[in-house]
Amino acid sequence: MRVLLVGNGAREDALGWRIASSPSCDALFTTPGNAGTALHGTNWNLSVTDAKGIAQRALEERIDLVVIGPETAIAAGVADRARELGLAVFGPNRSIGRLESSKSFAKRFMERNGVPSARYAVVHGLDHARKVLATWGERGVVVKADGLAAGKGVVVTSGPAEAETLLAHWYGDRAIPGGGSDVVLEERLVGRELSVFALCDGRAMMPFIAACDYKRAGDGDTGPNTGGMGAYSPPHGFPEGFMDIVRESIFAPMLRDLAAENERYIGVLYAGLMWCADGPKVIEFNVRFGDPETQVLMPRIGGDFAGLLKSCADGTIDLSLAHVNPEPCVGVVLASSKYPTESTPVADLPADLRLPEGVRAFWGSSHIVDGKVSSPGGRVLTVTAVAATLHDARERAYEGVRSLRERFGDADLTFRSDIALF
Ligand code: AMP
Ligand code: GLY
Q1: Ligand 1 within 6 A of 154 CB?
Q2: Which residue of 58, 62, 155, 204 has the smallest Cβ count within 10 Å?
Q3: Looking at ligand 1, which residue's alpha carbon is closest to its atom 4?
Q4: Cα(236)–Cα(244) distance, integer angstroms
């Protein structure tokens, strides 16, 4: 099978590595890819939002399966275009992709269909927001820009006063992340977070694997929200049978709702959940694999992962094609030092990372120039390790971080030191 993977982050390096090593994959192409995917196959230079170009080239190159990584490609209609040309696609069409690209669409969808989630309101301006906040009392408020903002459009505030100050800035200075004008206000949920990934073939929705990620920039969950600074899998400290609870309380109603609204969902549905005193509630849905979660999921998957994704794309999901190994995996993100405020380019990194046994690193957005890797900054690498226990996986991942920092010399990179530390 010839597989085309769309994307250029560390998620795609991890997906590409796992797909290329699947028995049913004969050739992998990635567009535009990065320094890591170049080692698993061939990179094309079409942008992830060039829906027409990607679909056309996939047809010409006799691609058997298109796998879509980032939400921007889904929002640009890459899946729709490719399906129109008769290609098998792992990734949802744009209309249902709004579960991620519009927070208000997702909230209304969940409310209509009884999927547990935080109380919310959609506001269209500062006066409107003030009126809503006046009725909410002193509880914590989460302020969310409606559109896609690369993980940077959400601010968890301590209460209505802080929320109002932020909204005055967003509306007053036209500074709403993502550039829209609607904002979702949400009740702040209290609990522990986890991400559950369900594989979907248009009819079935199967929770497959789960992880926990770390969204704040600094140790101890301080600092601004980022795209994610680290992750581990499987989740630790949740009730036994938590995947079954999530299947029943989150994915079963989602599946019924999609059927009721005549939507066929093919791809991965990522439920970002808060485990509250009364059970799991949805914080967000994403319509793709997570980053950095994927970097800790792929090292745990065995069997024919590419075949499993193809079975989803064909509407005949077959979970027996691949399996999840019990050994835990921990991943630590190395980011340029001012991330997420600024991205500082990093150049001249070695392409051959020579990591200790059991450690694997995945490149974020990057290019190889004269045998060296250059990165525009942001999340440069995710360093992962699998071991018999979470503790050992963590130790090994940080060993990998240390060895890379030594090899990288003066590259100005930062990381969190408390990933999977309990
Ligand atoms: P989102 O982009 O919607 O996933 O939000 C980013 C992060 O903000 C989440 O991972 C949570 O840590 C936090 N967050 C979002 N919504 C809520 C909420 N209703 N209650 C508490 N924390 C939240
Ligand atoms: N790790 C969070 C995300 O991929 O959205």
Answers
A1: yes
A2: 62
A3: 284
A4: 16
